[in-house]
Write a structure and sequence with these properties.
Layout lengths: L3 E6 L3 H18 L4 E6 L3 H12 L5 E6 L1 H14 L2 E6 L5 H5 L6 H14 L3 E8 L2 E3 L2 E5 H11 L6 H13 L4 E7 L2 E13 L21 E7 L3 H11 L10 E6 L1 E5 L4 E4 L2 E5 L2 E12 L2
Parallel strand pairs: 1-2, 1-3, 3-4
Antiparallel strand pairs: 5-6, 5-15, 7-9, 7-13, 8-9, 8-12, 9-10, 10-11, 12-15, 13-14
């Protein structure tokens, strides 16, 4: 029996980019697979239902055409079913695709995916899990999670500028956080501005908050930005775009396979999606995802 694939399309991704190129992407994929289901959904619930339907008919590969939100849903499905994942990025952030070296241009990405399918090439990747939810990129709490929460409420502008404006707004409301962190066998209480747990390096549309994180080493890279006054944080923020923030004296980095984070009910985000509020238990699961690309 041949390869059964599904293309999950989120039409609104990239301000309609996914909808515009879905036909071309599907046509290219059909050249490499024996069956392709086209799953077009406007809501998470619709997408999950369609994925379950394909899985019930022997699905081997789920290809997600969309941004990080769509990729996050694909990760949930694939990690829980054992179906392999492929990505064709067409969103505004595309942080998971960036971390996995998927070409930024969606048509180049589908060509690379087809080449991997034809060569029978796949790889096992780690995922994080936080209280029952999988994530592929970064889990965060503190200042950066508050920025994500604000970004999700904003309707303008698009892309990285939305994050920049949200950062400025959250700076005005900056307050210190107290976190109790248990990482593997160590426990510490820390005053921090933000805490990021990276399975991969990037979040927020290309910010390498955990620049050394790799998704196949069985460990998280954790970045903690200590308590900073507003003016000092403002000076440090541009270095986040380059990864140079790890050299700041207020920044601490370490590696861990498991963490428990407690705090004063701060929001928690992973893959740019809300996961509720602290406390949170986080674990790295080696080889949880089969990735084709």
């Amino acid at each position: 029996m041949g390869l059964h694939a599904a293309l999950a399309v989120h039409p609104a991704s990239g301000h309609g980019t996914a909808a515009r190129i879905a036909g071309s992407v599907a046509a290219r994929l059909r050249e490499a697979v024996d069956r392709l289901d086209l799953l077009v959904a406007d809501t998470v619930e619709q997408s999950r239902e369609l994925m379950r339907g394909s899985h019930g008919e022997g699905l081997d590969l789920l290809v997600v055409l969309g941004g990080d939100g769509a990729a996050h849903q694909g990760v949930q499905f694939c990690a829980s079913t054992g179906v392999a994942l492929g990505l064709v990025p067409s969103g505004t952030g595309n942080d998971l695709a960036r971390a996995l070296n998927v070409p930024a241009d969606p048509l180049d990405a589908v060509d690379a995916l087809v080449a991997a399918v034809e060569a029978g090439r796949s790889r096992s990747l780690d995922l994080g899990t936080a209280d029952g939810t999988w994530f592929g990129t970064v889990l965060c709490t503190g200042f950066d999670a508050s920025v994500s929460e604000r970004v999700n409420r904003m309707r303008w502008p698009s892309g990285p500028r939305r994050y920049d404006l949200a950062i400025l707004a959250e700076l005005a409301a900056l307050r210190p956080r107290r976190f109790a962190v248990r990482a593997d066998d160590d426990s510490v209480d820390i005053d921090a501005t933000l805490l990021a747990v990276g399975n991969t390096a990037w979040y927020g549309g290309g910010i390498p908050v955990c620049p050394g994180a790799e998704p196949d080493d069985g460990m998280f890279d954790v970045t903690v930005v200590g308590r900073l006054p507003r003016h000092e944080l403002l000076r440090m923020l541009p270095t986040l775009r380059t990864g140079a923030h790890v050299d700041h004296p207020a920044v601490r980095t370490f590696r861990a396979a498991e963490l428990h984070i407690a705090g004063d009910g701060d929001p928690v985000y992973a893959d740019g999606e809300p996961l509720g509020r602290l406390p949170a238990s986080v674990r790295c699961v080696p080889g949880a995802l089969s990735f084709v690309g």
